[in-house]
Amino acid sequence: MLGRILVVDDDGVNRKLVSASLDKRDYVVTTASSAYEALAVLAEADIDLVILDIMMPGMSGMEMLSVIRQTRSSSQLPVIMVTAK
User: Fold this and answer.
1) Alpha carbon 80 to chain centroid distance?
2) Of 34, 43, 54, 63, which one is least surrounded by beta carbons within 10 A?
């Protein structure tokens, strides 16, 4: 196992493509379809990296990043922002 990655994207196809690619490379991948679901995962699981969609309904990726940074620095929990656009 190389690390634990949380993939957050409201688009199921994008989420599946990214997670399958990482899984093939021996990462442990957890997925979430919304920022709210992802924040719940982060509260319970030990995650090494978040791959976060910028544009999501409800709470955007940028808003979620702001919530994450209230408790974890970028060195504690790196976040890669992505978009399909």
Assistant:
1) 8
2) 43
What six digits make up the tokens of 38?
């992802």
Tokens of 29: 């991948």
Q: H-helix or E-strand containing 4? A: strand 4-8
pLDDT attached to residue 84: 85
Report yes or no: 7 and 30 within 8 Å, Cβ to Cβ.
yes
| Residue closest to 43 by CA, chosen among 14, 67, 78, 11 | 67
pLDDT tens digits for range 54-63: 999 999 999 9
User: What's the pLDDT tens digit per position in 4-27?
Assistant: 999 999 999 999 999 999 999 999
Pairing of strands 49-53, 79-82: parallel
